[in-house]
Amino acid sequence: MTATTMLVNSSHPLPLGWEPDDLVNLWDIRPHHCLLRSRSLQLCACAAKAANALFGQAEREGIKDFILASAYRDGDYQAKLFEDSPNGYVAYPGCSEHQTGLAMDVAQFRRGMNLDDERKAWLAENCWEHGFVIRYPQGRQGVTGIPYEPWHLRYVGRDVAGEMRQRGWVLEEWREAHREGR
C-alpha cells in the first residue's frame, strides 16, 4: 500500500499511535498562497507542496479568499474534537483522514466552510491537477459513508487523482479496482 492511497475511516482505522513522519508547517512555506487559520497547520511534505501550488493557481486566477481551515490532526486533538462534538459528526480518533497529514479542509473568507458555488466548482475542476480529490463528493455517501463535503480535500497524487476524476471514482472504488488492502 502506498501512503497516499491509504484508506482511513471507521472500518479502516490507523494503528494506535500512528503519525506521519514528514510533516511540514505550512506557515514556513513562502510564499503561501492562501490564508491559514493558524500558524501551526501541517501537512505531509508532498501534500503541502501540492496545496501551495493549488492555491497559487487559484490566486493567479483571481481567487484570493481561500482559507486553509484544518490540516493534520494528531490523535489527542482528534479525541478532543470527538469528545466536544455534540452530534457525533467528528470522526473517532484513528478514523480521521486528517491524522494522515494528507487531508485538509478549505474554507472561504467570510463564509467559513460554506463555500460559494464558484469556489466549489473551481476546486472540483482544478484540485486533481495538483493531486487532490474532493474526498466526499455529492451523491457518493453510499460508498464513502460520509455526506457531501466540498471543502474536504485529500491528497492522493496526480496520477491517482486523474484516474479517479476520469472514471468518476471515490478512493474506495479506486482501491478496489487496484486491489489495495487496508
Descriptive overview:
This protein has 182 residues and is of the alpha+beta class. It contains six helices and seven strands, in the order βββαβαβαβαβαα. Helix content is 31%, strand content 17%. The strands form two sheets. The protein has a five-stranded mixed beta sheet with strand order 2-4-5-7-6. Strands 1-3 form a two-stranded antiparallel sheet. The mean pLDDT is 91.
The helix tally amounts to 6
Rounded to an integer in angstroms, the radius of gyration calculated over CA atoms is 15 Å
Number of strands: 7
The strands making up the biggest β-sheet line up spatially as 2-4-5-7-6
Largest sheet: 5 strands, mixed
Oligomer: single chain
Order of helices and strands: EEEHEHEHEHEHH
Q: How are the SSEs ordered, and which strands pair?
A:
Layout: E1 23-25, E2 35-36, E3 42-44, H1 45-60, E4 66-70, H2 75-84, E5 103-108, H3 117-126, E6 132-136, H4 141-144, E7 149-155, H5 158-167, H6 171-177
Parallel strand pairs: 2-4
Antiparallel strand pairs: 1-3, 4-5, 5-7, 6-7
Short description:
It is built from six helices and seven strands. The protein has 182 residues and is of the alpha+beta class.
Descriptive labels:
single chain, 182 residues, alpha+beta, five-stranded mixed beta sheet, two-stranded antiparallel ribbon, globular
